[in-house]
Amino acid sequence: MASETNLKVASPNDIRPNPENPRLIFREKELNELEESISTNGILVPLTVFESSSKGFVLLDGERRWRCAKKLGLRRVPIIVQPEPSQIANIMMMFAIHNARSDWDPFPTAKKLQELEQLYERNEGHLPTESQLAQLASLSRGEVRRLKNILGLPDEYLKIIEKEEELPRADQTLTVDHLLEVTRGAKALTREGILDQDEQHSLERTLIQKFQTNTLNSTVEPRLLTRMARAVERQDVPIGIVQHSVKRLIEDPTFTVQDAYQDSVERAEQEHSLELAARRLTSNINDFIQNGDLSASTLEALEELYSTLNVLFGN
User: What does each C-alpha distance from 225 to 164, 184, 213, 253 come to in angstroms?
Assistant: First the structure.
């Protein structure tokens, strides 16, 4: 709970936005809903700020409430005043305050995480480990990895995402996760020599368009491209079969990744899974033969398997 010494009121005009805030996009619909609530009930949760000698009060938390207060013409807003942090501590506090929220857009957050990493390197003389960076930003290591992967996307895709993130979330058809899955799957095909670089980019752009037109709906569907690449790597299918399906995926606007997978490697994937299962079963049976008797129910199941195998081998 805030003490009497740091709980105050201030004019919204004396408060400035925080330049280190990873949240850069404020959607009009969300602001309008909050503005209506503040107009009716007032600001129920104080803004958190620090007092800067050069900039007056600077926001740590509550920029949406501050924007609405200015728009409503409020003369005073409640604030909690914190000590002025260093730049790196400022960024860390912004992440810590917001780490449990889902309303930050990934791309600007990724850029701010990169800035935090660079500040750490400048101060400490070396880059933080993934674990250290996660701790600094109050994020999981998986989320740190995801945000860093976002910055590895081509500039043309990042520009698409910037435009997309300006839309209300309900109207967005493309997210950074779509792009990460698309580029990861296309690269897997290129590594196996199924595509060249130009074909990889054509496939990526095509899949992006198919997400935008709702031809593709599942974010993870491009993962099937990686399975297609692995099937070629194992030599389960000839490379030409996969190349033919991928070419159709590029050229046919209604052809999906699922269609390409079924058309090329699904049967081989099923057989590969069956082979692995058969080898595991054989190993397990041998272990039981050496180490003890089988239960009646297990023997019954194996007898059913034996009958099925007899049919398969024509016995």
Answer: 25, 9, 20, 17
Is residue 201 included in any domain, yes or no? Answer: yes
Domain that holds residue 45: 1-84
Tens digit of each residue's pLDDT (9 = 90 or more) over 256-269: 999 999 999 999 88
Q: Are 108 and 206 in the same domain? A: no
Alpha-carbon span 203 to 182, nearest angstrom: 9
pLDDT of residue 78: 92
Helix 141-151 vs helix 130-137: crossing angle, to nearest 10? 100
The pLDDT value given to residue 42: 87
Q: What would the two tokens of residue 36 be? A: 């209506």
* pLDDT bracket for residue 103 (50, 70, 90): low
Greatest distance between any 2 Cα atoms in the chain: 90
Q: Does the structure show a pLDDT above 90 at 161?
A: no
162 and 145 housed in the same domain: no
Mark which of 28, 57, 84 sits at the end of a domain.
84
Q: Are residues 161 and 148 in the same domain?
A: no
What is the per-residue pLDDT for 2?
45
Per-residue pLDDT for 4 more than 60?
no
Among 50-59, 66-75, 132-141, which stretch is predicted with the lowest mean pLDDT? 50-59
Q: Which residue type sits at 153? A: L
Residue 315 lies in a domain: no
Determine the 3-state secondary structure of 128 from DSSP: coil
Q: Are residues 178 and 200 in the same domain?
A: yes
State the alpha helices, DSSP H only, in the chain: 28-41, 63-72, 87-98, 106-124, 130-137, 141-151, 155-165, 176-191, 197-212, 223-233, 239-251, 257-264, 266-291, 296-312
211 CA to centre of own chain: 16
pTM of the model: 0.69
**One domain for residues 182 and 258:** yes
The count of structural domains within the chain is 3
Does 164 lie in the same domain as 148? Answer: no
